[in-house]
Amino acid sequence: MQYFRFGARGGYEQSRAPLRAPLLERLLARADDFTAVSDWRADAYRIIAPHAGSVPAVAAAAVFADCGAIDGGWVCIAAPLRYVAEMSSVRLPQDGILSLRRADAESLALDFNRVWLDSGVRMIAGASGVLYCIFDRALNATSIDPKDVLERHIEAYLPAGPDSPRLRQLMSELEMWLFEHAANGDRAAQGLPAVNGLWLWGGGVPVDSLPAAQGFCAGDDVFFKAFSGKNSDTGVIAVSQVPGSEGWPQVESAWLEPAVERLRARRISRLDLSAGDRCFSLSARGSRRFWRRSKPWWESFP
After folding, report:
1. Does residue 262 share a domain with residue 225?
2. Do 127 and 199 reside in the same domain of the chain?
């Protein structure tokens, strides 16, 4: 079995017409009807760790792979963003999720720990350049992957739960801290967009170990990059590219086309196609439904 996750939001909401993706559309046409997905990572995780008792939090897995075991009660990812302020709200644009070089991430973490000294939270930078906030005590709060907020106004997607006010307040303080931060002057000199916010998400209790994957993990998802797998026909591919985007042909040739070959050869029993809150499953038998007519991919992921 293979689980293929890709980006969908925003690709068809731009002013220009979205681009078609013929191979993906043929596969969707031949797949079974979709199932609703509340947590796609949990669904995909069971493919590579079928005997695991629970799913680690996104940040817990990522920080363990990036930095090793850490001391703390709760950890979350602090994703650098570029917000766009509008008349009465704030929006996260399609290109609003940014990345940091490791040296820049370490510099921000050092200054954060100076400013928030003795506040019950500290920041560390991983070898990958990802920033993590580590709290002294466990928090009861949920937060959303910033990829699910692209092209949306952020107010409805801020952290929720009993301890969410602390996270919301910290996110507001981070915006003020970054407003005239020297790091943004350096980025401007390099022609890079300013970081005007850090999105706190993926939170959970840190872990002391992760299971080895019983299959491969590929792509750019911060959670699945944490798992070491093996060469196998079974696995999870999670990419941020949107169908029809510049990088989509490479995604299809590297992952979708080989998956279809494995499916037809019955080396895998199923191919799951997931985006947004939907997942379509395609079996080897279903892949032969040649009479089904393709439709634009974005109609399957409204």
Report:
1. yes
2. yes
Query: Residue 235: helix, strand or coil by DSSP?
Result: strand
Beta bridge partners of 2: 235, 271
Note the pLDDT tens digit of each residue in 55-95.
999 999 999 999 999 999 999 999 999 999 888 889 999 89
Asked if 55 and 45 count as a contact pair (C-beta separation under 8 A), the reply is: yes
Domain count for the chain: 2
> Would you say the pTM of this structure is higher than 0.85?
yes
Diameter of the chain measured on Cα atoms:
65
Q: What is the pLDDT of residues 171-215, one digit of tens each?
A: 999 999 999 899 998 899 999 999 999 999 999 999 999 988 889
Closest CA to 96 of 144, 149, 58, 142: 149
Pairing of strands 235-238, 2-5: parallel
SS (H, E, C) 171-239: HHHHHHHHHCCHHHHHHHHCCCCCCCEEEEEEEECCCCCCCCCCCEEEECCCCHHHCCCCCCCCEEEEC
User: What does each C-alpha distance from 183 to 105, 111, 207, 235, 277 come to in angstroms?
Assistant: 9, 10, 31, 39, 36
Q: Is 117 helix (H, G, I), strand (E, B) or coil?
A: coil
Rounded Cα distance between 13 and 162, Å, is: 34
- Tell me the three state secondary structure of residue 168: helix
66 in a structural domain: no
Same domain, 80 and 196: yes
Tell me the torsion sign for CA atoms 71, 72, 74, 78.
negative
By three-state DSSP, how is residue 249 classified? helix
Among 68, 70, 45, 46, smallest CA distance to 58 is for: 45
What the block records as the tokens of 221 is 């998802």
- 1: CB partners within 8 A, 6+ apart: 47, 234, 268, 269, 270, 271, 272
